[in-house]
Design brief:
The protein has 232 residues and is an alpha/beta fold. 52% of the residues lie in helices and 10% in strands. It has a single domain, classed as 2-Layer Sandwich (Nucleotidyltransferase, domain 5). It has a 5-stranded mixed sheet with strand order 3-2-1-4-5. Helix 2 crosses helix 8, helix 5 packs across helix 6 and helix 6 crosses helix 7. Bound molecules: zinc ion.
């Protein structure tokens, strides 16, 4: 990061895009306590929100939900494993499978073209499997964001996805909800900006605290130098 910062005249920060996207969602809705944010981008992404905060570690090795295995004999993922969520649920996978760009693919879905519907239903089935696996670890709401969300309506996405999730709910503990992200594919940029805004207000708060301390010390000094001697 230091090497990169040398060439940029404004402060730089390296942050996982799904983490910054989740930050934007928390900023928008302060009632979010525990949730999973899933990003349906060219590469799939996901991050965990716990107690209203993004679960993060010093090294970017947690919240790599995209590499959870759905099928050990599935296609090879760029991480080296087989059958990760990434190879079934990324936007790149849809493009490869459909052999057309995303806009044309969703046009086909909306016009009930058989091939597009088959690919779309398979995609949603894998996404439901992924959500069901994650929900087995953390039973909380799911926020669905990323590039693909702009093409989805409630009918062709959330209602179908919820139907598939209910079928997988073998223990009848379907107590979580799925909902679209507030800022769709713009969440990562907004969340990254929020990190700098938070830092600005934190610095402002520190400056205000320093000023209050300085004024208090000054008044205390005045009391001992001027007021106290006159009381004798
Ligand atoms: Zn992988």
């Amino acid at each position: 990061m230091k090497r990169f910062q040398k060439y940029i005249k404004v402060p730089c920060l390296l942050v996982h895009d799904t983490e910054s996207a989740a930050l934007a969602e928390i900023w928008h809705d302060t009632t979010i306590s525990n949730a999973i944010y899933l990003a349906l981008n060219r590469n799939f992404g996901g991050t965990l929100i716990l107690n209203g905060k993004v679960h993060s570690t010093q090294e970017p090795r947690s919240s790599v939900i995209e590499h959870m295995c759905l099928d050990p004999n599935g296609p090879l993922c760029y991480c080296g494993k087989r059958g990760c969520i990434e190879v079934f649920c990324s936007a790149d996978h849809l493009v490869d499978k459909a052999g057309m760009d995303i806009s044309a693919f969703f046009k086909g879905v909306k016009e009930n073209e058989k091939d597009c519907l088959l690919i779309w239903n398979e995609y949603l089935d894998y996404l439901a499997l992924a959500i069901d696996n994650i929900r087995s670890v953390v039973n909380c709401d799911f926020i669905i964001g990323g590039y693909l969300v702009q093409f989805m309506t409630d009918n062709d996405f959330f209602s179908l996805l919820n139907e598939l999730l209910k079928k997988r709910n073998s223990l009848s503990i379907f107590s979580f909800k799925t909902r679209p992200s507030r800022f769709k594919d713009k969440s990562p940029k907004l969340g990254a900006a929020m990190l700098f805004i938070d830092e600005f207000f934190l610095n402002l708060s520190n400056i205000a605290q320093s000023m209050i301390l300085w004024i208090f010390s000054y008044l205390l000094g005045l009391y001992f130098v001027i007021v106290k001697p006159t009381t004798h």
